[in-house]
Structures are given as C-alpha cells and as structure tokens.
Amino acid sequence: MKKIISLLMVLMLLLSVTACGSNDTAGSTAAESTTEAAAGSETANILKVQIDVEVASMDPQIATDGTSFEVMGDVTEGLYSVDAAGSPILAMAESVDKSEDGLTYTFHLRDANWSNGTPVTANDFVFAWKRLVDPATASEYSFIAEIAGIKNASAIIAGEMPVEELGAVAQDDKTLVVTLDFPVSYFESLMSFNSFFPVNEAFFTETGDLFGTSPETILANGPFKISAYEPAATTIELVKNEDYWDADAVQLDGIEYQVIKEAQQTMLAYQNGDLDVANLAGEQVEQFKADPEFNNVVAGYLWYISPNQTVAGLENVNLRKALALSYDKAAIVNNILKDGSIVADFAIPTLLATGPDGKDYRETAGTYLSTDKAKALEYYNTAKAELGVDTFSYTLIVEDTESAQNVAQFIQSEIQTTLPGMTITIETMPKKNRVERMQDGDFELGLTRWGPDYADPMTYLDMWTTGSSNNYGFWSNADYDAIIQSAKNGELALDLEARWEALKQAEAIVMDEAVIFPVYQKGNAVMIKSNVSGIEFHSVGINRIYKNAVKN
Amino acid sequence: MKKYLLKRILISIATLLIILVILFLRLEFMPGSPFNDEKLTTAQVELLNAKYGLDKPVLVRFGNYVKNMLTGDFGVSYTISKNTPISTLLMSRLPISVKIGGQAVLLGTFFGLILGIIAALKHNTIWDTLTTVISVIGVSLPSYVFALGLSYTLGFKFELFPLLYSSKLPFESSILPTISLSMFTLASIARFTRTEMIEVMGSDYIQLAESKGISGIHLIVRHQLRNALIPIITVLAPLIVGLMTGSLVIEKIFSIPGIGSLLVTAIQSNDYNVIIAIAFIYSAMYIGIMLLVDILYGVIDPRIRLAKEESHE
C-alpha cells in the first residue's frame, strides 16, 4: 500500500508538470485570440500612460501624492479647472460673483451630472470641504483650507469649532456661497485642486469604507470615468465620460495607466508601442536626448541645502554665503542630472506663480546666490576671521536615491576644493528618516526639496517663518515674519500689487541671509509619441491634464 | 504519526506567534513612521497617529493587532493605498504571486529533474558538460538578469511575449516572469539530481535490480530517482522560499500586481500593517512548506517515517 502511495506521489509530481506543459499550448492559443481582440481595439483612441507609482487613494480629501491627483483629476472636476497656461478656468462653476472686499464668493453651478445620473450640487462641495477640515477625517491636506482662507477652517481643524461653522454654505442646489477670513488672491486657482473636489454625500454614505476602491465606488463628473481599478492597481483604465458637460471637447476615447517601476522595461514598452507617454530615468536621458519624441518638463520642486543655524559656525551669515556660492550649479544640472533640471538662483521656482501684472514671478524678481567661487572664498575668509576658526567640518544628510547621492557627492567635492579647510561628510538614509531628522533639528546640513502646493510664492515663503515646522534651519527674522503675516491675511493681502512686491522683498531677505542654499529646480524628461499632442503639464496642483489631449 | 503531526502543527503555530512578535518589535525600532512626510505638521502627525491608534503603547497595539488578526482583520494600509483594508489589498494579489511562484517551481523542478537525469545517465559526455554549464549559469546569475535579458530578447526584439504582466493575458504575460524565476530552481535541482543519481546508480541495490533484469524507465523512476529524491526534496524547500524573495524583484520588473512588489513599496514607505501582513504570510508559507517536506520524507522513504514514529511515540 505504502509503495503504491509513494509511487503515486512521484507520478503525480511528474504528471502535474506535464499537465502544466500541455496547458502551455492550450493557454497560448487562447492568449493569441485575445491578442487579436486587443489589436482590434487598439485602433481606438486610447492614450497609454506610464506612471512610476501606484495610485494611493481616489478619495479627494485623503490623497496626497501627484499620481493620485493626476488620475483623480481625469475623473473629477472642481469649481475650477486650469488651462494650458495654468490659469483657473470655470468648470463645475458656471459663473461666480465676487464681493468687493474679496471675502465672499457666490458660485453658480452648471447643469452637470455625476456618472450615476445624479446632479452635481452645491451640497457636494460643502460635504467634501467639511470632510477636509474635520479632525475626524485627519486629512493630511486640511491645511489647504486654511491657505484658501475659508472662514473658520483653522479653528475647525484645530478642533476648537464644530465643522458646521465652516464658511461654505449651499444656498440652494446650484448656489454655493463661500466666505473667507481674509482675501486670498489665488483662491480661484486653489479651487482647481483635488482637495476641494466635490463628493456626493449620498453616494459616499452608501459606499462607506469602500468609497474610491473600485469602478463601482468612484463617481465621475469629469472628462473620463474609471472602468478598471482596484487599490494599489498596476493598471488603471479610464473611458471617456459621455455625460461630461464638455464631452464634445474630449477627443480621447480613454486612458490606460500602467505602473512600471523598472526604467529599462519602461523604455522597452515605449519603443514597443505599448506606451504613448513614458517617464525617463536620469541615466536614460543621454540616450534619448536627440529623439524628437523627447520632452523636458519643468517641475515645481526646488532642491536646496538647509543649514541648521543652531550648529556652531552655521549661524554666521558669511559662512553660509560662502557655502551657498561655492558649488557649480550649472555642472550639476548639465553633467549630473541631465533631465531638464535648471539652475536655481532663487528660493521661489520659475513657472510657479503669475503676478497681478500677468507675468511669471521670476521674470520680475532678481537672481540670488549664483555660483561664484572667488566671492565664496572672500566670504569664507571673512567668516573665518569672525569666528576665529580655521577649519570646519559638517555632515550633509541626504536621502538614498541615486540622483540625490550623486548631487551630494559633487557638492561635497566642490565645497571642499573651493573652501580649503572645510570638510563635508555625507550621510545617506531613507527619505523618511532624513525628513524626520531635519524636522527634529538633528542635522547640520541637509539636502532637501519642496514641492509647491498652490500657485503662489507663499507656498515657499511660508516655510521660513519663525516656528514653521519646515523651517529646518531655525532661522528667525522679525521683519520677514511681519511681511509674510501681512501678505497672508493682513494689510498686504488687500493690495495685490503691493503684496507681490513685498513677496519679492521677502525672497530677497531669505536669499541675502542664505537661509537656504538653492541647488536646482527639478526637470522631468518625458517621452511622448509624435502622434500625441495636447497634454497639459503643470508644476503645481495636478501635474498632467489630458482633457484636451489628442492621439492621431 | 497523527500525534507527531499534531505536535508539529502546534510548534508551527507557536513559531508564527514568535515571528509576529519579532516583526512587531522590529517595526517599532525602525526609524521613521508612516507619517513623517515633510508636508505634515506635528499637530497633524499626532492626529493621524491617534486616528490609527499608533499613539498607544506598543504592548496595547500588539494585543489589539493579534486580537483583530484572529478575526481576519489585518488593519488598513497607511500610505500605499490609504485606508484600504489589508485583506482587500492582498486578496487579489496573493493568487497572482502564488500562481507565478507555483509555475516557476513546477517548471524548474521538472526541467531540473530531466536535465539532472540526462546528465547522470550520460555521465561524462557532452550532455553532462552542457547540463553543468547551464546549472552554473542558473545558480550564479541573479533572476533579475534573466528577467531583463528575457524581456529584451523574447519580449522586445522578437515580440513573442508581452513585456509586462497584463490581467487581460494572464497566462501569456506570466511566461517570462515564470522562466526568470525558475532558473535558480532549475539549476539547483539539476545539479543535485545529477550528483544523487550518480551516487545511487553506483550503489549495490541498483546493481542488484539491474541483475534482476529491471531496466529502462522503470529502473530510473522506481529505483534510481526515488532514492535520489530525498536530498532533492531537502533542497527544494529552501528553493521555494527563495522563489518568494526572488519574486520581489521579478514582480517589480514585470509590473506584476503580486504581494512581492507590494512588500517592497510598503517597506519604502513604512506602511507597517502591509509589511507585517506580507512578512507574516511569507513566514507562514515557509513553515507550511517545511511541514509538508517533513511529511513528504515519510511518504517517499518509509525508513524516515518509522524512525520518527519511534522517537516521538
């Protein structure tokens, strides 16, 4: 008996393998027929886009990352959307009445429906915004409601006031009245951001915990709707939303997102024709640079070194300036990154914000802390005399990505050559640890970055106020604090031109005191098939908008 | 035998519990937390920690975790897929990982055995040398080298297979990952089979069998292979576990929505609950396989079973 069992075991092992082998052929014929079917549908106008990471959330008030914002932006629309230039354009709102003092906005919503047929109402916005500020939601982006100046948002977020007190009221189904605590010049632009997207209360209650986890639990009021999705999916499929109010303007039949994390695979799939839009890794840029399908897109991220001013020596402004001027930024963007990043001689990135004059902020603001090794040495000598020290040694903390490490090593060698007697040690760690160390003030120099949350210089300048959790260097300047306070919700907030000038002045203070050492503004290298046009790239808010994209 | 099995299963459960404690403690000492993004203020981090109960002492959290786990609740993801229950996240992914891993084991074992047997039977011929070369390459090259090579040649140049995993072509698109993943198993099995077969073939009882007139496939399968299988099964268990860890890279390369790629992302973003759940699943699989191997020994070689029964009962 036992012999038979054991023989059977061996046979089973062999058989299961041969069974698998015969399956092979059956499987592949089935697969072939599906390939043909897929080839048939390929003629449809579907844009295939590669993304580096999975969508973390399809819940507008919970999502925090660019990929989630992008996909959500395809299916949902807020009061406003943005045009190709990044200026706000009416979307769910058909018209708006602004009060003289800039404190009350009355939005009249257009006749638009959710994909389940129910109309988009003012209450959808009120419900969503209350969720945003409700401490029970613990939304990581709740601060954006404070930035928007919505009445009582700060107090509600802090748990000092009930959510009902929020300055957003549905006067009737199609009229939304928003009151602000102080005038916010970029309020309309903010309304195009995901955190302010509407959520249908009835649908939300009905889906409960499953909200935003499958095509059935995601409602669309935007140009596309979800046809295939699951949490942390590697492929996401969208089809054109025929019920979208502006459906005639949408030319694509759909979008297919594919998560690919391996750079070589991405480019093989792109060259194979499996992708229409693909991100290039830094090391691939050289290879594809000359390709007509190669595109450089400037992103909003500013990379900079933050000096901790509580560390001996770094409180000296001349030493900080010496460090800030001592490394060749052009070499960093041209020889190391090569991805379209640009030299940053500023604290506020380019193409971030448009002023009351209609010009980009950077066009009228100055440049600061440009690389100048001779001058760096001068500052260095002054600093040495002032501090009475001849040699310095600092540790630069850096996250463990390849590009960050390469940049750090180059800066290290540049500083050490330009400033004799200065030793820089590099310490690498995962990003989460670096952020934690910097927030705790447990560092000397840190290479870090900041991405903008809204299209105004304040998204950067607000960081360097006294007590801000992102003021890693513990710099403090009363004049600066006063300007920022006034520009946010004081006198300057009422006078847009004066505010704009004051912001430039504030940036000048930050740069003159070398509160941060700017390095570069990140660029992205993207491959886009030549038959695809009309994708709108933005450095703030939703990074890529496909509503007007065309694939021939 | 039953008593022995029961005892083994109890030990397995205890081991799993200990693993869970260690996992929990290790995450506790891991630097950083899921919520230390540069955008978050201290007040928000406190709010988030309170929401997910991360502000409680580690012992209380562990107690809650075990309690919830027993009811099948592994908690929710904090960062990868915000607020999604881990069970939802794993449900669709686990079968894909198991499928590809299983295919790789079968493929690797089958061709490994065949290659090994050929090499042993054609000892010291060109076939033998060829097998040895294949084995050496298979053992020494990491699976992602095969993966990238295969996707470049078979996927990109000849366009025989899809480059990436696709739920629309689940079988066709799983071929390249399966082959890449199976190479190490194939090579190891081939090597061991060859060595063991050669040893068995030289033994007295095979000579006896041959002299009794048994020959051909019957001799190979019934007498030679069966005796050679025991050491092979010993190496097969760690190989299967090796497949799981190998799948982390393979899943990333082929964009397979499995649990391996999920684990990598989870570790990078400190998504505690996902890390614990997947690491726990891996441990459970490992222990399960070890248990299975112990039972298999007994089936294949009655001497082992008898010895164990004597010592345990």
Descriptive account of the structure:
The complex is a heterodimer of chains A (552) and B (313). With 552 residues, chain A is of the alpha+beta class. Chain A folds into 2 domains: 7-259 and 529-551, Dipeptide-binding Protein, domain 1, CATH 3.90.76; 298-523, Roll (Dipeptide-binding Protein, domain 3), CATH 3.10.105. In chain A, 35% of the residues lie in helices and 20% in strands. Chain A has helices at residues 2-41, 66-75, 122-133, 143-147, 153-157, 187-190, 201-207, 263-272, 285-288, 317-325, 329-337, 361-364, 373-387, 402-418, 431-439, 458-461, 478-489, 496-512, and strands spanning 46-51, 80-82, 88-90, 93-98, 104-109, 168-172, 175-179, 224-228, 235-240, 254-259, 277-279, 294-307, 342-343, 392-399, 422-429, 445-450, 517-528, 532-533, 536-537, 544-545, 550-551. In chain A, strands 11, 12, 13, 14, 15, 16 and 17 form a 7-stranded mixed sheet that branches. Chain A has a 4-stranded mixed sheet with strand order 1-10-9-8, covered by helices on one side. In chain A, helix 10 packs antiparallel against helix 13 (373-387). Chain A is globular and about 75 Å long. Chain A starts with a helix and ends with a strand. Chain B has 313 residues and is mainly α. Chain B has a domain at 93-259: MetI-like (MetI-like fold), CATH 1.10.3720. In chain B, 76% of the residues lie in helices and 0% in strands. Chain B is built from 13 helices and no strands. Chain B has helices at residues 2-29, 42-51, 58-70, 86-91, 94-121, 126-140, 143-157, 175-201, 204-211, 216-253, 259-268, 272-300, 302-312. The radius of gyration of chain B is 24 Å and the shape is globular. Chains A and B meet through helix 1, helix 8 and helix 15 of A and helix 2, helix 5, helix 7, helix 10 and helix 11 of B.
Notable features of this structure?
heterodimer; A: 552 residues; alpha+beta; Dipeptide-binding Protein, domain 1; Dipeptide-binding Protein, domain 3; 2 domains; seven-stranded mixed beta sheet; four-stranded mixed beta sheet; B: mainly alpha; 76% helix; globular
